[in-house]
Every structure is written in structure tokens, then in C-alpha cells.
Amino acid sequence: MALVIPDVLEESCSTRQALERLGVKWRVLLIYALLAGPQRHAQLRRRLPGISQKMLTETLRGMEADGLVSRRVVRETAPQHVEYELTDLGHTLEKTLAAICDWAMSHSRS
């Protein structure tokens, strides 16, 4: 069976839409961080040096809207505790990201 390559240049292409969603800065790194299991906002900030609190919040909200991350309130009373974790859909990216890591290590220039 021949490999079918979609026309990713077309705006309606689902592959293009997926690439645009995953290409947003920090998303792939957050997926890597969340592969370790549920984590709170502060834990994620420590694991991703350079990300601002605002950017982390915006990125997590977008990932939640896309169905990649779920948000769970652990404690309702102040201070509120919230955990984020990958959904089943988010976990489907693990093998794909592992393949990218393998490719990067095989082709590193160092």
C-alpha cells in the first residue's frame, strides 16, 4: 500500500490543523512534562524554565480546549489546588514524540 501524503498546504487539511496546534510554542514541551503524570501549575513552571505564568495558563487552556489536557480541582478552598494531566487523546502523542526524539538523537550535529 502506498503512503498517502495529505496536502498540508491546504487550510482545511486535518494534518495542517494538527501541526498548527502542536506547533504553538510550549505545547510539545508541556506534553513531555505531563507524560510523567498529573502536575500542578507551579510544578509545570519549574519544569519549563522560561515560561511565564500567563503563557503557561494560556497554553494549558488551549490544550484543554483541544482535548489534550484535563484540569482537575483538587482543593476548592483557598488557596485552590488544580492539577493538569494528559487526556487519552494527549497520551496518543507519546509514540509520535518518541519518534521525533529518536530522529533528533540520530541526526544531532554534536
Short description:
This protein is α+β, with helices and mostly antiparallel strands and 110 residues long. It is built from 6 helices and 3 strands; from the N terminus they run ααβααββαα.
How far from one another are the termini? Answer: 37 Å
Global morphology = globular
How would a crystallographer describe the biggest sheet? 3 strands, antiparallel
Residue fraction in strands: 5-15%
Mean pLDDT: 91
Strand order of the largest sheet: 1-3-2
Rg value:
16 Å
Report on this structure:
The protein has 110 residues and is of the alpha+beta class. Helix content is 49%, strand content 14%. The chain has helices spanning 14-22, 27-34, 41-47, 53-65, 88-91, 94-106; strands at residues 39-40, 69-75, 81-86. The termini are far apart.
Please describe the structure with a list of short key phrases separated by commas or semicolons.
110 residues, alpha+beta, 6 helices, 14% strand
Topology:
Layout: H1 14-22, H2 27-34, E1 39-40, H3 41-47, H4 53-65, E2 69-75, E3 81-86, H5 88-91, H6 94-106
Antiparallel strand pairs: 1-3, 2-3
